[in-house]
Amino acid sequence: xxxxxxxxxxxxxxxxxxxxxxxxxxxxxxxxxxxxxxxxxxxxxxxxxxxxxxxxxxxxxxxxxxxxxxxxxxxxxxxxxxxxxxxxxxxxxxxxxxxxxxxxxxxxxxxxxxxxxxxxxxxxxxxxxxxxxxxxxxxxxxxxxxxxxxxxxxxxxxxxxxxxxxxxxxxxxxxxxxxxxxxxxxxxxxxxxxxxxxxxxxxxxxxxxxxxxxxxxxxxxxxxxxxxxxxxxxxxxxxxxxxxxxxxxxxxxxxxxxxxxxxxxxxxxxxxxxxxxxxxxxxxxxxxxxxxxxxxxxxxxxxxxxxxxxxxxxxxxxxxxxxxxxxxxxxxxxxxxxxxxxxxxxxxxxxxxxxxxxxxxxxxxxxxxxxxxxxxxxxxxxxxxxxxxxxxx
Length: 393
Prior knowledge:
Layout (H helix, E strand, L loop, with lengths): L3 E6 L2 E6 L14 H12 L22 H9 L2 E7 L6 H10 L26 H6 L4 H8 L15 H5 L5 H8 L3 H4 L3 H17 L2 E8 L1 H4 L3 H19 L7 E9 L6 H11 L7 E7 L12 H14 L4 E4 L8 H7 L5 E4 L7 H9 L3 E3 L2 H6 L9 E2 L2 E2 L3
Parallel strand pairs: 3-4, 4-5, 5-6, 7-8, 8-9
Antiparallel strand pairs: 1-2, 10-11
Helix pairs in contact: 3-5, 9-11, 12-13
């Protein structure tokens, strides 16, 4: 199945394409509700207008038109770049923590951030910051990179990161440290969060989603994490899909840049689960950084092997590339060496005409995420894409 979506948002044109995937169900005997959802999946062969890849409640300077926002919410949309663990409802997590106050012990007292390269950097006081929250809004401010929620927290170490109106990718990743320990190995909560994710997609009229996450990051047993998430996604798709209003969600499994030892298992899981419709795995990705693109990086070989094996197995690859300021060479590497069919972000390609031509020649589609990328200063006004070519103001 191939769906192409176009949506003009001011001067920014978002273009997305779904992975070409087979829509036949798994070999096991499906239930009636599963048959219904698979039938809906097979019949969905049309073009839809695409939204940005984040929450449509956008609060960036060039998006202040209420009429436009209402229109975006109302039209059917396809969303191809959305992180499951970046889409949790902070209020639901806060309520869960209030019902289970002992879970505060799951949050480390202090922790050195996984991506921190400065050997003299002090550990971050995570539990103190969470304990200081008095309301769900306090916790939302802590867990959310969106500018409307940024506010100084109590601990001195957090002020620089959390006060800024804009930040870096690392500042955004910092938000995850305040809630991932709460969901880790909590399979009932993961299932409920997956159901809630589908519900919110439905409310925003996103009729097809490819949601990505690292199962290894969410549990000691990644297979159980996937099972819980899939159960919640399927329950949401089945219960919320109505006649004429389809809600379909498939999955992309992620390797993690600084955890190369997980990549071999990621591709094995993707291969086994690629026909497990509904909510099957339709591709793989590498998230949380781009260090693996550097040939002499300790992260390089395992991630490259995963992507090359994906190519041999016919599993589509989408890669985060060209998102950060020092990543100009990564989009070309993702296409040439890793076999990526889609690129997440890819903004730095605007500086390289040869890579632009390469992407055009191979019909590479870019998953642009204006909300997160403007907030993290990864996307600038002068970096504008139109029809796959560079334009200037």
